Predict the structure.
Amino acid sequence: MILGRVVGTLVSTRKESELEGLKMLLVREIDASLSEVGKIVVCVDAVGAGEGEVVLYAAGSSARQTKATQNRPVDHVIMAIVDQFEVSGRVCYTKGRDD
Amino acid sequence: MILGRVVGTLVSTRKESELEGLKMLLVREIDASLSEVGKIVVCVDAVGAGEGEVVLYAAGSSARQTKATQNRPVDHVIMAIVDQFEVSGRVCYTKGRDD
Amino acid sequence: MILGRVVGTLVSTRKESELEGLKMLLVREIDASLSEVGKIVVCVDAVGAGEGEVVLYAAGSSARQTKATQNRPVDHVIMAIVDQFEVSGRVCYTKGRDD
Amino acid sequence: MILGRVVGTLVSTRKESELEGLKMLLVREIDASLSEVGKIVVCVDAVGAGEGEVVLYAAGSSARQTKATQNRPVDHVIMAIVDQFEVSGRVCYTKGRDD
Amino acid sequence: MILGRVVGTLVSTRKESELEGLKMLLVREIDASLSEVGKIVVCVDAVGAGEGEVVLYAAGSSARQTKATQNRPVDHVIMAIVDQFEVSGRVCYTKGRDD
């Protein structure tokens, strides 16, 4: 999975019928210093994430293994909201403190 | 999914029989400022997209989860036309206004 | 799918038995100006492509959705020969004229 | 598979229910000289790896082929701890000696 | 598939049980001039390749389509040893002559 931050939202009315009812969020990958890196990906939200939150997203066929996304043409899904992570023994992010 | 803009069309008569009747469009990824970035990918169109429109496309096995593309040798599909998206609370694109 | 040009051929006698009888071609991705970009990939040919031709290839599990490649350890397949493509209303390639 | 080193840990309480009970580790790819290269990925641990260890991880649908990860929205898994590897006849890493 | 050269070996005793008995080799991608490019990947060997040989490897779910790798957490497999390949009519590699 990849560490990312929710940076925006997206609205689409004309879409594959299998996508009805799915919330789509814009996510940008972050590195250990919480800097946004790389490009924006559009993820289906399976966990009720909000803008600014640090999340984990899965890509590829694994993105269809949540209840919300099964058998749907979805290739990126947010499947966890991060509470804390540390690298080399140093806490890099704590939810609430570093948002 | 990836944000892209439809930039062209493609015609092929000699192809896998499973591809008969599928419309193929050339799509280029865009960033939050609507600039075209990265390379051209060829997507099957599952939603009736037209040239110039901002769309979402899915890649990999997820591209075979639409009615049009099931069990076909297709690895990129346009599965939504974007009406609007915003990043950090700022509207980056509104269909009709920014095309 | 990705736009590419067939640039070469490959012979292998010691290989997985599932690969017997499959023709393998070397393909290099091209951009809208027909310049070869990126690295060489080795594709199984599902449509009878020849050296120099502009083709579409699919990658990943979608490469196993042709009759020739089903259930085989193949991750790139040529599934169409391109007749013509255009970008922003300009014809970039016409088979026969631009080969 | 990719060679990586476990560099950190991650805690998440709000997540897809299918992820309950899975340990998630932060891993950074390494090259033949053991230098960390590329970005951090978050892997489910299927083998009891610890921080600092050199491991192999698999990505994509193959990451769901372990007992721990079957049918779960997981796209990276640590499936082996490396004891030793050599390149061009030179031992690059021996567990215990080079950690 | 990708053209690569076998550059090394790897030993692991603590691993997913599904990996028992599989030989793992380090492979580096090569270009048309046989130069090693890109990073090292760890492939399961399905064809009895040896160090220094030019091989083809498949990635992703296609890597699980060999007898050796079925249903195993393997995402790269060597599925052919290359005898010869040519680009633009020029022979770039002949096994035995260019090893």
